[in-house]
Design goal:
heterodimer; A: 232 residues; alpha/beta; Rossmann fold; four-stranded antiparallel sheet; 6 helices; B: 758 residues; alpha+beta; 4 domains; eleven-stranded mixed sheet; six-stranded mixed barrel; 20 helices; elongated
Chain lengths: 232, 758
């Protein structure tokens, strides 16, 4: 199994204010799958994504990628793990304002020993003509494309997307989802996408539905459709 | 694909350009600071080298002594048996006519203590004179001018520096040299002989065959030599080189200056490093979600620490390089002028100063590096998730300080701003404290010296204190006989210095002391307030003094303090004086007189102490320090404005979204200023008020420590209006900054509140 999530528990606070956010999560994901983590606010899906991303730690259980458990890693090894295996996309694009679009993508490329060709990727992202512009000269959708470019340029094993369309309109959201799908097809990365938009599950290979810190449903999508055909 | 170069590097020039104003002011300030310090250290070292070399180059003496009469060959032979070589170094002292001064004139020196010619040449003809450069400058005398010395008109043909008069001390026990009313000069042998022997001093210099290796050895050898000398001749004056202020004062002064200015530089660098660190911390807060994303993507903490450290270090490095270039060129000459404006030094050549390079470049860079490393490492050590959530607090649960709801919302709002910016305000406080040190230093010397001068002139014993070579009668009205001698202090923890011991008549018109009974072994005395303050003496204390050129000790009981700020002095009954010093009961050797005494021949007068003699310290210090004080003033104000400007700018920038939001809510600019600018105003005004007494206490303690190293006593005095000046300068400087910040608040657009970080 490429990505194994086993018995993950996580709680915040102490005493009466203690809140169990994850109550024992077990998921297995195949390499190259698009996995959509679906659930309402507070269901624990972002927390799970952060634990997989090595930026938060579990109280119990483990995450293993290709047999490598991240709970055993120290701070330096975790940084290396993120550097080698992960690409992150957030709802807010978090681009560096005084670097242009190409340079923002290069920020990701710098982390890899074997990055994708930046210009080619910018073409794929439809950003090549905008490459010399600063982030604030682009639309929200274009900025999110740049953020995706920054995440995938290092050709990560896993692309973690936390509500990547949360701040975008319908049309732009579909374009971004299409882009994620294209990237998955083209480069074969495993994609974990957190969303509360139920319509997006249709483009996933695997759907994990969460509520109250638990997995309510975990299934392989038998009727996967293209992102451009999604409707909501 | 080849490895991509770190694109974050491209941010550095943009960051520098984007915050050009901030970096420029820091850069200019650092260039100025490093330039001044580098120039100072280079000048100091180069002059020190010239000073050290001068001992050999000009064949400096190991000491000199003055005899009551000319030494015969037998005496010279006896002395030279002590493994020393004796040289004649006679001088005459004459008044000058064109300027109010005394010149000590030597015959051209060919063997010992040779002169360095700074301009023109040495005297070659009978009517020519070469005078000290410093004295000439202070009295505006130039080569080619005519100078009337005694009753001779001489042509000034050269400006010189005599190697044994680097600081123009007319008397080595003086508190301060006097390059205004005292000078040295050389003339031809023929001219020298023509002055006659009325004002001739039989001064001799000596050199050891085997020079001592250090001051301890020099003291032992000097003491041995003095013993032989005192046994064979009447010694009027004895000054081994290691105690000769005219020679060593410069060296001591330069060493002290060197240490002081280096500490000064480091304090400034530490403050600037903290300003940078706070600036970087603010950038981190501003860019926290980006940092979180980068960390989540795999950027290490180290890479980000390096990234945020680069801009300050580049600014510092470039400032250090340019500062050093300016130091070696422009500032070096300026700083050298400070020394050449006080001392009669020989010419110097600029030397590469590795120590200055380390002190002004390597050490500041290291200070900047480590302070930034420390602050940034701490700041960037929190988890990527916290950065993404913009939760940069280290504590788990940050509880807001409760404020009484009876306090109006505007005041509570202001308090919150102050609490939020405590690190900035602490740095502002430290910056203001340091700026106030510098300001006080720049402002206090004028009033301090004026006060000292006023104190002395309004507390003179009389207009003219005559000291006679032998008792003489006078019919001058009001002249009063007294006795005087000089002893040395022996108190531990204080340097040995001369104390003038006066024996005055019981019902003296000039010295109002009332000593009723006195113990024969420990006679009762009054001590001058200068002596009492410097040595912490009180009524009932017993002081021990010793002979200047002997080992005999004397004990005195302090009966009271007599207000005489001019010098360290002891006043006793004339009868006690004569008994203590084994003189006849009617012995006297001087007159106090407000009138000039005209009926005693000059040959019988050893010296006349006038107001000019007593005020030479303040006069010389004013000449030496006057222009330097302006540097301190400018620097203090610059420091003040820089720190407040940078830190209040950060506060406004940090709160730009909140300011924008308050604008959306309908607050007017004036109201917003009252919140954000007034919070800083409160802190600044409080800081100024609190730091003035701290600066005053610190500088006061420092001055007492520094002044205790001088002979005599210079009391620490700051008039009330100086504190007002400091406050006003601080507030006016801040007003300029506050105005700039108000303009900044006005420029913040309402859209800021609605913007993402992009």
């Amino acid at each position: 199994m490429f990505l194994e999530i086993k018995g993950i528990k996580k709680a915040y606070g102490q005493g009466e204010s203690r809140a169990e956010v994850l109550k024992g999560i077990d998921i297995e994901i195949q390499k190259g799958e698009i996995c959509v983590l679906l659930g309402p606010s507070g269901s624990g899906k972002s927390t799970l994504l952060n634990i997989i991303g090595g930026i938060d730690n579990a109280d119990d259980g483990y995450i293993s990628i290709n047999g490598e458990k991240i709970a055993d890693m120290n701070e330096k090894q975790l940084t290396l793990y993120r550097r080698k295996h992960l690409g992150y996309v957030f709802q807010m694009y978090n681009l560096i304002p005084n670097l242009n679009i190409k340079e923002n993508v290069e920020v990701g490329a710098y982390l890899s020993d074997n990055p994708l060709d930046v210009d080619e990727l910018l073409n794929t992202l439809g950003l090549y003509e905008h490459r010399h512009k600063l982030p604030n000269q682009l639309s929200g959708g274009q900025q999110q494309r740049t953020a995706i470019g920054r995440a995938i340029v290092k050709n990560p094993d896993i692309l973690l997307c936390d509500e990547p369309t949360g701040a975008l309109d319908y049309k732009t959201s579909k374009e971004i989802l299409k882009l994620i799908e294209d990237v998955n097809h083209k480069y074969g990365n495993t994609v974990l996408m957190v969303t509360h938009n139920g319509a997006i599950e249709s483009m996933a290979d695997r759907v994990v539905k969460m509520r109250d810190g638990m997995v309510r449903k975990n299934f392989v999508n038998p009727t996967k459709i293209s992102a451009m055909d999604l409707e909501w | 694909m080849s490895k991509v170069k770190n694109p974050l590097r491209k941010r550095i020039p943009r960051e520098l350009k984007g915050d050009f104003g901030k970096y420029l002011v820091i850069f200019i300030f650092m260039v100025g600071m490093i330039g001044i310090v580098s120039g100072f250290l280079v000048a100091n070292q180069s002059i020190s080298n010239a000073y050290d070399e001068s001992f050999q180059k000009y064949n400096m003496e190991d000491g000199n002594f003055e005899l009551a009469s000319k030494a015969d060959s037998k005496l010279i032979d006896t002395l030279e048996k002590e493994d020393v070589k004796i040289y004649d170094n006679f001088y005459v002292e004459e008044e000058t006519k064109e300027v109010d001064s005394t010149l000590r004139i030597f015959a051209n020196r060919t063997d010992i203590d040779r002169a360095c010619v700074m301009e023109g040449r040495l005297a070659e003809n009978k009517d020519e004179i070469a005078i000290d450069r410093m004295y000439a400058e202070n009295n505006n005398i130039k080569v080619g001018d005519m100078l009337t010395v005694g009753n001779k008109k001489l042509n000034v043909v050269g400006l010189i520096a005599l190697s044994d008069y680097k600081a123009l001390f007319s008397n080595t026990t003086d508190m301060m040299f006097d390059a205004v009313k005292f000078g040295v000069a050389t003339v031809t042998d023929q001219c020298f002989d023509s002055f006659g022997d009325t004002h001739l001093h039989y001064n001799y210099s000596w050199q050891y065959d085997n020079p001592p290796k250090d001051d301890n050895k020099a003291k032992d050898m000097g003491d041995d030599f003095l013993e032989v000398l005192a046994k064979n001749a009447i010694v009027k004056n004895y000054i081994p080189e290691y105690t000769n202020q005219a020679i060593i004062f410069v060296g001591d002064d330069m060493t002290g200056d060197n240490a002081m200015i280096t500490v000064f530089l480091y304090i400034v660098i530490v403050i600037i490093a903290f300003v940078f660190a706070i600036t970087s911390s603010n950038s981190i807060l501003k860019e926290s979600t980006i940092i979180g994303t980068l960390r989540a993507s795999g950027y290490s903490k180290g890479e980000l620490v390096r990234h945020y450290m680069t801009a300050p270090l580049i600014v510092m490095l470039v400032a250090a390089i340019i500062g050093n270039i300016l130091g070696y060129t422009f500032f070096k000459d300026y700083m050298a002028q400070m020394y050449y404006g006080s001392y009669s030094l020989p010419t110097f050549e600029t030397c590469w100063n590795a120590e200055a390079f380390v002190k002004t470049t390597i050490v500041p860079l290291l200070i900047m590096f480590f302070i930034n490393l420390f602050v940034l490492s701490r700041k960037l050590s929190i988890s990527p998730l916290k950065f993404i959530r913009r939760d940069l607090s280290r504590r788990k649960k940050k509880k807001a300080i409760r404020l009484n709801t009876k306090i109006g919302i505007m005041s509570r709002f202001r308090f919150r701003i102050i609490f939020q910016n405590i690190p900035n305000y602490i740095t502002i406080f430290i910056g203001i404290l340091f700026a106030n040190f510098i300001l006080l230093f720049g402002l206090m010397f004028g009033p301090l010296l004026d006060n000292y001068q006023n104190e002395i002139t309004s507390n003179l014993i009389c207009e003219n204190q005559y000291i006679l070579k032998a008792p003489q009668k006078t019919d001058t009205k009001g002249a009063e006989k007294y006795c005087v001698t000089s002893l040395d202090t022996t108190a531990e923890g204080h340097k040995i210095e001369g104390v003038t011991v006066y024996g005055v008549k019981n019902d003296s018109k000039y010295v109002d002391i009332n000593i009723k009974s006195s113990d024969k072994d420990e006679p009762s005395v009054f001590v001058s307030n200068a002596y009492a303050e410097k040595h912490g003496l009180n009524k009932g204390d017993v002081i021990t003094l010793k002979e200047e050129y002997g080992n005999k000790k004397y004990k005195f009981t302090v009966q009271g303090v007599y207000y005489y700020p001019s010098t360290l002095a002891v006043f006793m009954k004339q009868s006690d004086f004569n008994e203590t010093f084994d003189q006849d009961s009617d012995y006297f050797n001087g007159y106090f007189s407000d009138q000039k005494i005209k009926d005693i021949d000059d040959d019988y007068i050893a010296t006349v102490i006038t107001q000019d003699d007593l005020t030479k310290t303040s006069r010389q210090l004013k000449v030496s320090m006057g222009s330097n004080m302006t540097i301190f003033l400018v620097f203090g104000i610059a420091m003040f404005i820089l720190i407040i400007y940078l830190l209040s700018k950060i506060i406004i920038e940090k709160n730009s979204q909140s300011i924008s939001m308050t604008k959306i809510l309908g607050y007017r600019n004036g109201e917003i200023n009252r919140l954000y600018v007034t919070a800083t105003t409160i802190v600044v005004v409080l800081s100024i008020l609190l730091t003035i007494p701290i600066a005053d206490w610190t500088i006061g303690s420092l001055c007492v420590y520094i002044f205790s190293d001088y002979s005599g006593w210079l009391p620490y005095y700051v008039p009330w209006y100086t504190y007002i000046e400091m406050f006003v300068l601080g507030v006016v400087s801040y007003a300029v900054v506050a105005f700039m910040q108000m303009c900044r608040v006005k420029r913040i657009p309402m859209t800021d509140a609605l913007k993402n970080n992009e």
